[in-house]
Structure formats: C-alpha cells, structure tokens
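[step 3/7] inverse_fold.run input=structure_tokens len=414
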C-alpha cells in the first residue's frame, strides 16, 4: 500500500493548501507515504510564509531539570532513575560553589552522566538568577515524578525564582507533573486549583511535554503507567480556561505508525479549535520531538531518519493549521536539521538551552551541557535565508542590548 501511494501525485493536497483548506486524516497519511519530500516542504513553506513571512523566531532560555527521580518507567526515557526505599540521600547534581558563594554547574565537557539527583529550591533559584544575569527571558523547568517531594516544593520553587529573577518567564511542569501534583497535594487539589496556586506563585505557562502519542496501543506498550491523553488534555484545557498559554508536543520515531502521528495531530487540532472558540488561551506552539533511543529500554530501535524528521515537521505545519508556531528543538533534531527545517514549515527554534539532562544526541555519556549561542542561532537562521527575530515565551518581540532586554510593549501574546 505504501509503495503504491508513494507514486501518487499530491496535486489535490497542493490545491487545498493553496486555497487554505483544512487537510483530512487521509491527506496526512498520504503525505507521510509520499516520497516527494521537496513537494511536502514546498507546501509546508506556503503555510509557514503565509503566517510568518521570512521570520524565524528563537529564544534565549535555560532548561532546568530539577530531578531525575521518577515513579514512572517509560520505555522511551533514559533520564529517569528509580527511587528505592531507603535510598541514599540524592547525589549532588554537581553544583560548584564559586569564590563569591555563587552556585554553578561544571562547565567542562567531562562531567559524568548524571546519577540520581534532585535540586533544592535554593539551587534552582540560583540557577535562575544566573540565567537572568546572562540575559535569558525564560526558564523551562521539568523533571521526573518525584515520590517524596511535597507540592509546597514546587510552589516554593516558583516563588524563589520570582524573587531571584523577577523578569524571567517561568514555563514549567508538563501535564503529567500537574496531575502528579493533584495526587500529592494535601488536601487533594483539582487540576484547576493546582494551576491557580502555581500561577499565583509565579508560573507563566506550561510546556508541551508528556503528550507522546495519543493512542492506546502505543500508550500501553511504551508508557503504560503514565497519565493518558484524557489527563493531558484536561490539564491543557484547564490551563486555557484560566488564560494560561501552553505548548504541545509529539514524541515520534519509536513504535508508533505514521497514521497514529496524524491522529495525534488531529486530536490537538480539535482541542485547539475548542480553545480558540471557548477558552481564554490556547496552544502557542507545537514541537515534534525526534525520539533518541540511546540509553532507553527501546535502545535497539534505530530512531527516526532525517527524512522522517523533515516530513514530520512539515506535515505538522500542514495539519495543525490553527496552532501558530512549529518549533524545531535542535537538542532532539540536531542543530543541522533544525536549520534545514526552517525551510520545511518551521518558524521557531528553541533556544540557547545551556543544560539539558533528558536527552543527548550522539552519546548519552558525558556532560549534559548543551548550549547554543545567540550568534550561532542567528547565523544558522540567516544562512537558511530567514530573518532571525528573538521572541519571549509568548512570542512577543524581544529588543536586546547584551543581557538587558525588553519586550515589544504593544504586542498581545500570540
Ligand atoms: O515529555 C523523553 C520527551 C519531553 C525522550 O514546550 C524524549 O516548548 C526524545 O516536552 N527522545 C520533554 N524525546 C521535552 C519537551 C519540550 C522540549 C522543548 C520545548 C518544549 C516546549 C517542550 O521529551 C518529554 C518526552 O516526551 N522525551 N525521552 C527521548 N529518548
């Protein structure tokens, strides 16, 4: 079936794209089956340029992964460490105390691959302060589902970051973590109450992680104990109801099939229709995450090829006609492919990152220092024929002078 489909023309899909018509599930599957990567890219670029012209957005941020202890055992994940009863106190993450008393992560590329760890609230606040001092506009904070930390830890974390770095936008906690907080809170809180308390403590928006693939078969095979699609959508729907913007992701290139990826995108598209029509906020951005097998229980899988990466990014742009931004996360697609993706439907690149513990391309061992400088990101974007524009988390333009920055004052969040 794939062979016969691959030879068929995409002319009717091209007509729909040119007319701004919504694509169907069958259209999406046909795009995946097609071998005409140039045509898929051309079509995705029509949509991308219609929405954003030549602009490619990027942001100056820091990712902070506060713990790798996790009660889940997702097969695709190489980050989690089990928390055993009577476990020794967590290994320090490797923060170093400088002569001025400031904490920092070791910058050399030879720090060992992380053992189990958890940060204190003070350490996180210090990292946020350093991020702000270096000019970051956002901290992106996620971690494992820690069995012992109380909900107050997460509230204190947000409050401490606000106190240490008031200008930083806190984008934190996947939907899975939010559900975890409802379970550990005493008395037990609803999703809405958890989100409102976090917002009052300083949380600005939710990242898109934890979505994986919205399909029962894939869920049961690869991340059985994780909250499923209903929980994920409940969290994002509630966030949108209270006016909090969020992102959405899809983890592809493991045991899922192309038609399941398209179903995933359509479920997000339907949810976005509802949010745009009835809620105060919506998805800002979709981030397809390219599966990195190394070190995970699915480590024998080959992972997605470059063509699957490009197709997935381009098809996301075509299917998700109501989500404004498609982001290439260079940590997962590689910087080289993320650059190419700017001409395959993507209008956004995340980010300066600095440290990222969840995945590492080309060798899980060694340091998790993974940093992109502003200059390199701008150069990659310019070489791709696009115009680099720095944005904040809510896609307002950032005007920068060194580490000092301001957002475009008139712009409403998109
Ligand atoms: O939820 C875990 C995924 C996610 C692997 O919202 C893996 O702006 C690939 O969600 N290979 C976390 N992916 C990252 C994430 C994200 C990243 C950048 C920007 C935003 C945003 C969100 O990473 C997890 C999981 O789906 N993941 N293990 C792996 N081996």
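[step 3/7] decode complete -> sequence:
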């Amino acid at each position: 079936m794939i062979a016969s489909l691959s030879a068929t023309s995409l002319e009717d899909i091209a007509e729909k794209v040119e007319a701004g018509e919504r694509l169907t599930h069958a259209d999406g599957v046909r795009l995946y089956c097609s071998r005409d990567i140039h045509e898929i890219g051309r079509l995705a670029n029509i949509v991308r340029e219609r929405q954003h012209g030549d602009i490619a957005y990027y942001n100056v941020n820091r990712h902070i992964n506060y713990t790798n202890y996790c009660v889940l055992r997702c097969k695709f994940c190489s980050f989690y460490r089990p928390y055993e009863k009577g476990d020794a106190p967590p290994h320090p993450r490797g923060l170093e105390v400088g002569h001025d008393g400031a904490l920092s992560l070791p910058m050399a590329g030879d720090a060992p691959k992380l053992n189990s760890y958890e940060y204190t609230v003070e350490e996180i606040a210090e990292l946020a302060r350093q991020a702000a001092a270096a000019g970051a506009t956002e901290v992106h904070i996620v971690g494992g589902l820690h069995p012992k930390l109380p909900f107050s830890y997460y509230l204190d974390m947000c409050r401490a970051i606000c106190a240490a770095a008031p200008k930083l936008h806190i984008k934190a906690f996947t939907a899975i973590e939010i559900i975890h907080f409802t379970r550990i809170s005493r008395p037990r809180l609803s999703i809405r109450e958890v989100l409102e308390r976090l917002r009052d403590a300083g949380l600005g928006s939710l990242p898109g992680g934890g979505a994986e693939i919205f399909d029962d078969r894939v869920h049961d095979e690869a991340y059985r104990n994780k909250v499923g699609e209903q929980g994920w959508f409940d969290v994002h729907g509630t966030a949108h109801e209270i006016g909090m913007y969020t992102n959405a992701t899809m983890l592809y290139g493991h045991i899922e099939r192309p038609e399941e990826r398209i179903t995933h995108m359509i479920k997000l598209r339907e949810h976005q229709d509802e949010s745009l029509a009835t809620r105060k906020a919506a998805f800002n951005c979709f981030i397809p995450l390219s599966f990195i097998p190394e070190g995970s229980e699915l480590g024998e899988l080959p992972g997605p090829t470059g063509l699957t990466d490009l197709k997935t990014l381009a098809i996301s742009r075509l299917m998700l006609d109501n989500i404004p931004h498609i982001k290439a996360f260079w940590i997962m697609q590689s910087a080289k492919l993320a650059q190419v993706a700017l001409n395959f439907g993507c209008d956004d690149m995340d980010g300066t990152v600095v440290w990222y513990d969840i995945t590492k391309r080309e060798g899980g061992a060694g340091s998790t220092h993974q940093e992109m400088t502003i200059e390199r990101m701008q150069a990659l974007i310019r070489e791709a024929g696009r115009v680099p524009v720095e944005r904040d988390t809510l896609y307002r333009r950032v005007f920068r002078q060194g580490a000092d920055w301001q957002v475009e004052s008139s712009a409403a969040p998109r």
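[step 4/7] annotate
The pocket of V47 is lined by residues 76-78, 174, 207-210, 212, 247, 249, 251, 287, 289, 291-292, 296, 329, 332, 350, 358-359 (CB under 6 Å).
The first helix runs from residue 2 to 6.
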